[in-house]
Amino acid sequence: MCVRYSLLYMVTYSGVRVKYITNYTSKKYPVGSIHATNDFGPFEIIGRTLDKKSDQFYVRFISTGFITTARTSSIVKGMVKDYFVPTVFRRGFMGVGKYTSRNHDGSTRREYKLWTGMFYRCYSNDKQHKNYRVRGVEVCEKWHNYQIFCEDIKHLRGYAAWKAGYNMALDKDINFNGTYSKESCMFISLAENSRESRIRYHSGKK
Questions:
Q1: Which of 76, 131, 144, 191 has the highest local Cβ count within 10 Å?
Q2: What is the structure's pLDDT at 190?
Q3: How would you class 172 by CB atoms within 10 Å of its CB: exposed for 0-12, middle for 13-18, buried for 19 or more?
């Protein structure tokens, strides 16, 4: 007997238009069924991929609406990831795009260290950065998304030198004192950063 599949379309977060089916047969993974994950909250099954031999399903996370694919093995182990759930000091999230946290050799990317470092200075309880909390220094909402951060820093003054490997600091105070953002930040040398820090200290801004 020929089975007619109900073919639907949707656009994912990465902007890709994909096809999926909903009238398949599955006791464990029917459309609308809710499943838990270890770290990212529950999601619902919204369809299956077109490949009849594949065990991949399209799923939508309840809290963020993020849509992704998941194999049954990942569903069973609770290892399906939501890239829009804040995992860095309850604010920063990876987002969807080409930028990863690791290099090909497994080492941590400089961009990721730079990104997480902002959140650490602003939101950790480290006494070394107490003045950040006192001053109310924050990371702008756009830069909570790692993908946007990685794109934006390419346009900052001093980026070419930082990317080339020079030891530069991401400064937020020369242009605007108080927020990490594309409008306020630039890359400066460590000597320049120390000089600016001394000026702010003696002027009472710290």
A1: 144
A2: 86
A3: buried
